[in-house]
Every structure is written in structure tokens, then in C-alpha cells.
């Protein structure tokens, strides 16, 4: 094992791409992703406004949008130009104030204010949908109060009639609705899984590129695999610790539990990633195919975590895919530790949910025994050389 570890260390020094994968590439990626969400809350999102009424009421509604810090209204003369801007990504939503809006409101008719948003941008679309409706409701309140007073409703009952039932939504573990605490942890964990996959797959593919599979089998397949796991797990775990330190120490986001429990959960997650990469590597035995297959499998990890989309609403195939994604198991422990202060003992059921990945040892053993074409050819040539 010591010889296998020295062999891995020597190979790392001669592989610039692998050195980059375990050093500056993850750090740059982590910081870049954090900077994308560093504002915490979306501000000044462009919204196309088409005012077909051009009345005092419609202009008041437009000013209401201008006062909302989330929206940035941009006036368009017609619906076609506003739709074109939305299709080109210049605006994220479209608001149409219909002709005769003020007249219909004053004559007790029900005009339709058309609100459209791009649902491809999940969070932006949901945020704009709620903010536009809230702005329109607030902007129409003065007119509603005026109509109630004109109908003879006492001033004391106007507010009750406008809002007979008031509701308040409070995020228990994200009171400020900060997107950093909501999105950054799962995004960075998905990135960590991708980095771990690339590091381990590149280490395995190096045996094929350098044609050292015969040496690998001479030392013992499981010894070399064990050395790779012992060598790269702490290195990748350093980046996982950096993510936790960045979020919960440097940024000071609230955490109810212990970071040590999260590091243990990350270690188990990495072991599951190693098993999946090993199974794919020994099954395909081709560098390009291994990287392509692993990337296709692990790239959509964030979508399967269930942070921005309820997993029970996913198709059955997507739910099966989620089960084989190590980050989907980890995120449950992460949320429980961060939000509820779950201890290590209480986290054991989540950690034991990885047991299914141990079944991958069966196909790994079967495919590893078959060897590689290069190994078989060397085995046939060696007796001939000895005979000569």
C-alpha cells in the first residue's frame, strides 16, 4: 500500500491537469459561483410594461413597479416589441395594462391585467410573478378604498373589506429570503461532486493513457484502488471544508449544528462517488467514454437535490436518477444539520442510506477481473520474449 501511495504521488507530480483539478480550479470555481449570488437578493430585474390605457391609474401602477426594488419597468409602445424583447432575454417578464383600465375599474367591471414571465428562469420567474401581483394589488388599493367609501362603507371597515383575511409567510431558517443561504450551499456541493468525479476519473484514466495497467495489476488492483481513495479523499475533502468555512465561518450564515458532522457526511458522499466512477471505469475501459458518461450522470446534480423543485413532483425516472446521485443523499443531512442542529447520532439514518452504493462492488469486481486489452496483450508477449 505504501508503494502504491508513493506511485500515486509521483504520478500526480507528472500530471499538470490533475494538479490543477485538486488545487486552483475548484477554488476559482467556488469563488466564482459565490460571487454570482453574493448580492443575496435579486434587484432591478427588467420588466416590460405596455401601457395601452395611458391613464392616471395605469401610470400610478407603473410608478408602483418603479418603487419595488426587485423590478425595473421598461416601457414599450406595443405588445409585439415587448414580446420580442422577452424572447431575446432583454426582459424577464411582461406586464400589459389594457385599454380602458381606469374606466372599467370605476364602472365595477373586471379588466384583465396581463402578466407573463419566463418560467425557464425558475427562481426569477417565481419571484417576478409574486412581486408583480403584489405591486398591482398595492397600486389598486387606493382605487378600491375610494369605491368602498363611495358605496357608503364606513372608514373603519374599508381595510377589513379590502383584506378580509391577511396572511404572513415567514421563512423559518431564511428570514431575510437571502439567496446566498438558500442556493449557494447546494450549488457548491454539486460542484464538489463534479470536481471529485473529475479527479478520480482522471486518476483512473491515467492508467490507460500512460499504459500502466500491467503495473497496476502487478501491484494489485485493489491495493492501487485503495491507494487512490486514501490519497484523493483528503484532498477533495479540503475543498469541501473550504466550502463550509466560506459559507458558515467567513460569510457568517447561521448553522444550528456542527460542521464536523457535515465533513463526515461529505466523506461518505465522496466514497459513494468513488464507487460509481470505479464501476463506470471498469465497465467502459475507455478514457473519453468514462468522462463523458460520468459528466452526463453527475452534471444535473443540483436539479435532483429537491432544493428549488419538489422531488415528489418529478417523473418516476427522474426520482430513480435522484436515488443514485450521492449529493441527493448528502443534502438531506446538510439541511438537517444546518437548520435543525441534527447531531451525528441522529444523522446515522441518512448516512446509512448510502448502503445501496456498496452493491457496486459486485460489478466492479467482475469487470476488474476481466482486465484490460493492453494487459492481456502483454501477458501473451512476455512468454515469447522469455522463450527467445
Strand content: 5-15%
Neighbour order of strands in the largest sheet: 2-1-3-4
pLDDT < 50 stretches: 374-388
Distance between the termini: 34 Å
Q: Count of helices?
A: 18
The overall average pLDDT, rounded, is 85
Classify the helix fraction into a percent range.
Answer: 55-70%
Transmembrane segments: 21-41, 179-201, 229-253, 259-283, 290-309, 351-368
Subcellular location: Cell membrane
Domain ABC-2 type transporter transmembrane: 17-366
Membrane topology: Multi-pass membrane protein
Layout of helices and strands:
Blueprint: H1 2-13, H2 16-21, H3 24-36, E1 45-51, H4 56-67, E2 71-76, H5 79-87, E3 93-97, H6 101-106, E4 114-117, H7 122-150, H8 155-162, H9 179-209, H10 213-219, H11 221-250, H12 259-284, H13 287-298, H14 316-323, H15 326-340, H16 344-352, H17 361-369, H18 373-387
Parallel strand pairs: 1-2, 1-3
Antiparallel strand pairs: 3-4
